[in-house]
Amino acid sequence: MLPANPQSVLADILAAANAVVLGKSTQTRLALCCLLAKGHLLIEDLPGVGKTTLAHTMARLLGFQFSRVQFTSDMLPADILGVSIFDRERADFRFLPGPVFCQILLADEINRATPKTQSALLEAMEEGQVTTEGETRPLPEPFFVIATQNPSSQVGTFPLPESQLDRFLLRIELGYPEHAAERSLLESGGRREQLPALAARVAPGDFALLQQQTAAIYAAPALFDYLQLLVAATRNEPRFVHGLSPRAALSLLAAARAWAFTGGRSMVLPEDVQAVLPAVARHRLRLLSGGQAAAEDMAALIRSVPLT
After folding, report:
1. CA–CA distance, 169 with 37 (Å, rounded to integer)
2. CA–CA separation, 145 vs 55, rounded Å?
């Protein structure tokens, strides 16, 4: 059975998240949508704007087993996946699971690790399993990665390869807080101290049912037409190195369904697709002039595909 009132549960989660991460209601809703759509989340912004706090908040409110890894340049894949050690009493090797064996992994400042260490998460993100020393081990269900990264212009960062960026369903930015939100932070001394007191708003089993209901949100044939036109426009846009892939199109649909669900609707509207398009597409689209697509490129893309 689904929770008695799914919309009330979702509203409670968002209200609690917005009480910790002030003035970022759109970003907290996108983060929840990402998890409802069974996707991984990338949060990119300057240090100190609340990336880690948002990840901690979502994990606590959903009641999932949580691990945090601070990525550094000297980190090895075994530091994430785990390692086998020799047990003298058993005269055999024993596997010690790494922090990836959890339900929500916070990969903090993921782009400070080398590409070899970054790639250690690829199998986990795509297959929900880890293969080490010739043995494949399943990860707990559900399994999500919430990764934070600093802007690539900062010293000591290694850009994520396109193949790994594509594993993230959504990429969001927090930005500086608005005046009123920052004033509240200054007066209260910050909101991180509230995290230990946050209680789960939904049981893990119920959240799986919410995910099922999200996937069942109705999309009309006309909505599929509109989504395909948007995807085709990225492939025909000469400013982009390449357009959105079929996997990106599926991600766009899944995120739009989640946005509609959190908005209390039983069907996807074009406005839902437009709302999630920047978070789904920007990190997947590279400009010929260099760098990722900007918000202005997404706005131009939406204008180029009229609703019929």
Report:
1. 8
2. 10
pLDDT in tens, 259-290: 999 999 999 999 999 999 999 999 999 998 88
Q: What is the pTM of this model?
A: 0.90
Spatial separation of the C-alpha atoms in residues 109 and 195, rounded to whole Å: 20
Three-point CA angle 150, 155, 159, nearest 5°: 55
Tell me which DSSP letter residue 293 carries.
Answer: P
- Is the separation of the CB atoms in 302 and 274 below 8 Å? yes
In residues, how long is the chain? 308
Cα distance between residue 197 and residue 303, in whole Å: 45
Order of strands across the sheet with 168-172? 66-70, 104-108, 144-149, 40-44, 168-172
Q: Chain centroid to CA 218: how far?
A: 23
CB 130 within 8 Å of CB 136: yes
Q: Are 264 and 276 in contact (CB under 8 A)?
A: no
Long-range contacts of 89-93 (CB under 8 A, 24+ apart): none
